[in-house]
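Researcher: Please translate sequence to structure tokens.
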Amino acid sequence: MNEYLKRVLEETKKKNSNEPEYLQAVEEVLTSLEPVLDRHPEYEKLAILERMVEPERIVTFRVPWVDDSGKIVVNRGYRVQFSSLIGPYKGGLRFDPSVNQSIMKFLGFEQIFKNALTGRPIGGGKGGSDFDPKGKSDNEVMRFCQSFMTELQRHIGADVDVPAGDIGVGGREIGYLFGQYKRIKNSYEGGVLTGKGLSYGGSLARTEATGYGLIYFMREMLKANGNQTLAGKTVTISGSGNVAIYACEKAQQSGAKVVAMSDSSGCIYDKNGIDLAAIKQIKEVERGRIKDYLKTHPDAVYTARTGENSPIWDIKTDIALPCATQNEVSLQSAQKLVENGVIAVGEGANMPCPKEVIEYFLENNVLVAPAKAANAGGVATSAIEMSQNSMRYYMTFEEVDKMLENIMVNIFRECRTSAEKYNQGNNYVAGANIASFVKLTDAMISQGIV
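Model: Translation complete:
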């Protein structure tokens, strides 16, 4: 291993020994940069890696709120402003009991590279809280969001830091957050949050963007490797949230047959192909569980999750799209997928495949579309929303979707070009890391020691 790389990894592990998710993300990125560092020994003198792995700012704060029974509840809020090298901090808010500083830093670190790949002028950040919106009333969610924004508003702005949604933060939450921001600031700053409702400054196609973008990237990757297509391929998609639903929709439009989707409780398998309208009704309207699919489709098969591994990865498929959460594909699940003949994996979630899983797929000639490239469509369309807010002009769905498609095509080309330039073959994981790192490094050198 390159000595500079080895030293920075050791120092980073020592400084952040209690943050496993963050260290996992750093190691995954940095180890793929070895060919670049070998060609540019001057990066060590400039401390490029040391500056890249250290967030510019971390804000942690108390979030007190009152539930419907009158009980006072206290949660913890975070905002990691990781890098403003190429634009204002940009990244989602996650409301989930699993949220901690390690996860926030991992997501913020990934966001830097993802945002650089989009070609849009946006930096990297992430935030959220250990608040769980599941089972809460609309009024409880509103009160929490208002308390959360009362503190967060000090640290964000259209040209400073622009949050969006993530796990647990959808249109409802963004609306409450934006309303409180506007109330406190006494100013309508449409560009301060993205993922807004269409009635108050949101963008058409933003809801669909991450899932659609994933399929656009997969399409290009398959085309570049044997001129394959999605048409006729069997697809399994973990999750049933925003990313999974719209990846399913675009995959079906592309002629693929999606046979399985899941949630944290288990997975549904429909040999006739998933009825997406039923999934949307269950998840977007009723806020129910995936098992409810059986009520309207009794011929489908539901398998409950009983251990660490989701049963969805035991299903034979051509293409697997993990779209739920980080580290959801274990090595055991990866081995089962390979055994069943999977040809490609597309990361719709952030870091759903640990490093050893990605390496296993690549060793077995499975194409891997890495998260920071393949799921960049969401943040790319958020940047388009920011532009529309600045211009006081709104594009049609078709205009935004076409821009999204072009962005994803360009992202794949960058990944492919960088992989080839540094002799990485069709390792698009390395290609994505290298392409974004080179852009960020150029900006860092240009801006001096700041």
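Researcher: Any highlights?
Model: The chain has a mean pLDDT of 97.
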